[in-house]
TrEMBL record:
Taxonomic source organism: Anaerocolumna cellulosilytica
Protein name per the record: LacI family transcriptional regulator
Pfam families xrefs: Peripla_BP_4
Location in the cell: Cell envelope
Gene Ontology terms: cellular component: cell envelope
Molecular function in Gene Ontology: carbohydrate binding
Length: 329
């Protein structure tokens, strides 16, 4: 496979390390980099692990090859961050037949038999989308624009990734609820800055200043979209031509939220390392683990006009971004 597999263990020969094979999606975004860092720092040799890391460069076939490689190497555990939800049954069956437990992180796998994985740790992506849409509704209400027509474009993530499916679903549920909201277009920005800029350029050619809201499904797409919007001579922000919303709340994303170019940033917690370690430690003791565990996530805004939102009857505080908020994370 063209992916890079690095074995991070310096051979101590001690043999008592727990060997973990981690198949990571790629390095497409700041969020992904933070997620990889969390896994590498958790599964270190001093913590008692040998981590075999594989970067699949966003290609499922590379992830499948990496999993087969881990099975050959007789790792103790396989951790998979699946690029998209489908196409995993065969290789997960091979891992099951080889007796290697598989832990899914971040996005979900859509398999015929969920005994093909032991546990999943990640985000409630549809809730993320619903939170962002609820913030938009409250923001427009607070600005006295609750009844005005609102034209939205959705720069989606990698099509078929749980984060894309959930964030798009959350927005579309709100669009169907608010008759004055129109979803002009949904186009994949593949969670990258380059593609986000390219997609925004074509959306501006097609819709220009008809666009009121740019709903970016991660920070790197938002950075690209902002560059395209400003290059076309428009202004982003509360008092600009259009507002840009985003997901991930990476440090770079919150910095753009602090300066108002991103007006609302729904957090996506990349720190799966500790959760996965808890699961492995529980399994090592022969105990059972929860099938699904959601990580906690907040929502940030530039404009403190909205301090709380409600989704499906539950309330979520909105944190106004400050320098201190960014430094405290
Ligand atoms: C979300 C994760 C997404 C991030 C993007 O948990 O799957 O993939 O939102 C990343 O930044 O590319
Ligand atoms: Zn998330």
């Amino acid at each position: 496979s063209t992916s890079s597999t690095e074995d991070t263990k310096t051979d101590t020969g001690s043999g008592d390390l727990i060997t973990v094979g981690f198949s990571q999606v790629g390095a497409e975004s700041d969020w992904r980099t933070a997620n990889t860092e969390s896994m590498k720092s958790t599964f270190s040799e001093e913590n008692g692990y040998e981590l075999i890391f594989d970067d699949a460069q966003q290609k499922q076939e590379n992830q499948i090859a990496a999993i087969r490689n881990f099975i050959q190497q007789e790792v103790d555990y396989i951790v998979l961050a699946p690029v998209t939800e489908t196409g995993w049954d065969t290789v997960l069956q091979e891992a099951k037949d080889a007796g290697v437990p598989v832990i899914i992180v971040d996005r979900m796998v859509n398999v015929s038999d969920d005994s093909l994985y032991t546990a999943w740790v990640g985000s409630n992506f549809e809730l993320e989308g619903k939170k962002a849409a609820a913030w938009l509704y409250a923001y427009l209400q607070a600005a006295g624009k609750g009844e005005e027509p609102v034209n939205i474009v959705d720069i989606q993530g990698t099509i078929g990734a749980s984060a894309q499916i959930g964030r798009t679903a959350g927005l579309e549920a709100a669009v169907s609820e608010h008759s004055n909201w129109t979803l002009l277009a949904k186009v994949s920005g593949e969670f990258t800055q380059a593609k986000g800029q390219e997609v925004m350029e074509s959306l501006l050619k097609q819709y220009g200043d008809q666009i009121d809201v740019v709903y970016c499904e991660n920070d790197n797409e938002a950075f690209g979209a902002i560059d395209a919007i400003e290059a076309a001579g428009y202004k982003v922000g509360a008092d600009g031509d259009m507002i840009v919303m985003s997901f991930d709340s990476t440090n770079a994303g919150l910095t753009e939220t602090l300066n108002g170019k991103i007006i609302c940033n729904t957090e996506c917690n990349p720190l799966h390392g500790p959760r996965v370690q808890e699961i492995i430690q529980t399994l090592e003791k022969g105990e059972t683990v929860n099938k699904q565990e959601y990580v906690d996530e907040g929502i940030f805004s530039f404009d403190g006009a909205v301090s709380v939102i409600s989704v499906d009857g539950a309330e979520y505080p909105v944190t106004k971004v400050t320098k201190e908020v960014i430094e405290s994370r």
